[in-house]
């Protein structure tokens, strides 16, 4: 039996693809052979750059990622593959199924079948690899509660920002404005439905000139991962508006001016993260329903159109180096196996 390969974060900006023995499933597990996995330009770069607080689990809802951050570690949560073996207590019908898994980057891995998402035949591997990102964007849209005729701004047009823009463009908004520092991402944003697109240096006055009405938004999203953008997002949000913060800044410090207009503005600032549902949704929704909606959205959104680079898993170090050093060139990066 051939060996397996896995990606390991060994230290700050140090990634290696290791060869390990082929895993064998326990009685209640299946083994998945990975075809493709998607890199997260947000959280995975924080791990790569050693910007994760040491006392915070990477993801308390995913097995193996629920411990405080420390090197060395395996990380990732977007793998697509085929079940090739099952344990003695698992139905043989799982063999040959194509599945999505919230699992770190590896050529083969063993998990409980209950943790897998079976994939419909019409969804491609590359679209399916972006299921977690589409679910994240879905959660942002739900938490923002966009309403008819509202003015909405999205700061940050990385892959999750672009997919959030694509979802928001389906709402009957009066205006959808996006902000990003990279030309290529701004062009993609326009193609996904943004009405007005700005560079990150636009400033509060430039944004207000472009917005209709009183020149402020009803709903603003900060998805750039840049703490400085949060101040701009707050400044452009109108009184009694909503500001949804989907960025995880890790250990980056955040400075906000809350002593001026904000004090009497009634602005709601809300954190939004895919591992939980906001209380107002839990009467009718759970994470399974949200994931099912994201899965159904893959064919409509075609998120693989955002893929800019593909690297063999053996070259994973080059993939992370690209995201770290040349973010203007890369949107979504995939590992192939």
TrEMBL record:
Q: What is this protein called?
A: 2-desacetyl-2-hydroxyethyl bacteriochlorophyllide A dehydrogenase
Q: Name one GO molecular function term.
A: oxidoreductase activity
| Keyword Zinc belongs to the record | yes
Matches recorded under InterPro entries: ADH-like_C (IPR013149), GroES-like_sf (IPR011032), NAD(P)-bd_dom_sf (IPR036291)
What cofactors are annotated for this protein?
Answer: Zn(2+)
Instruction: Give every Alcohol dehydrogenase-like C-terminal domain span.
Output: 160-275
Family named by the database record? Belongs to the zinc-containing alcohol dehydrogenase family.
Keywords tagged on the record: Metal-binding, Oxidoreductase, Zinc
Q: Which CDD domains match?
A: 2-desacetyl-2-hydroxyethyl_bacteriochlorophyllide_like (cd08255)
Q: What's the domain of life for this entry?
A: Archaea
Which Gene3D superfamilies does its entry note?
A: Medium-chain alcohol dehydrogenases, catalytic domain, NAD(P)-binding Rossmann-like Domain
């Amino acid at each position: 039996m051939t060996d397996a390969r896995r990606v390991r974060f060994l230290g700050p900006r140090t990634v290696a693809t290791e060869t390990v023995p082929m895993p064998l499933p326990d009685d209640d597990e299946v083994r998945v052979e990975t075809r493709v996995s998607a890199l997260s330009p947000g959280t995975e770069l924080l791990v790569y750059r050693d910007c994760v607080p040491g006392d915070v689990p990477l993801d308390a809802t995913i097995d193996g990622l629920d411990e405080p951050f420390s090197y060395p570690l395996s990380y990732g949560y977007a793998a697509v593959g085929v079940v090739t073996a099952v344990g003695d207590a698992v139905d043989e019908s799982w063999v040959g199924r194509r599945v999505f898994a919230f699992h770190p980057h590896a050529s083969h891995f063993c998990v409980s079948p209950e943790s897998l998402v079976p994939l419909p035949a019409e969804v491609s591997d590359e679209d399916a690899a972006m299921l977690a990102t589409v679910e994240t964007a879905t959660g942002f849209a739900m938490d923002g509660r966009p309403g008819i005729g509202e003015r909405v701004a999205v700061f940050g047009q990385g892959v999750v920002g672009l997919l959030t823009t694509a979802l928001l463009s389906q709402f009957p908004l009066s205006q959808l404005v996006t902000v990003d520092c990279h030309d290529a991402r701004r062009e993609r944003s326009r193609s996904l439905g943004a009405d007005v697109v700005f560079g990150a240096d636009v400033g509060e006055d430039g944004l207000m000139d472009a917005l209709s009405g009183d020149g402020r938004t009803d709903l603003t999203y900060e998805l750039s991962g840049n703490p400085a953008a949060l101040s701009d997002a707050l400044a452009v949000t109108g009184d009694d508006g909503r500001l949804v913060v989907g960025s995880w800044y890790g250990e980056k410090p955040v400075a906000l001016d809350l002593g001026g207009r904000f004090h009497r503005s009634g602005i709601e600032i809300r954190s939004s993260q895919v591992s939980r549902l906001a209380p107002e949704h839990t009467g009718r929704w759970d994470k399974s329903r949200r994931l099912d909606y994201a899965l159904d959205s893959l064919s409509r959104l075609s998120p693989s159109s955002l893929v800019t680079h593909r690297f063999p898993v053996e070259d994973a170090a080059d993939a992370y180096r690209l995201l770290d050093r040349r973010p203007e060139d890369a949107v979504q990066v995939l590992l192939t196996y």
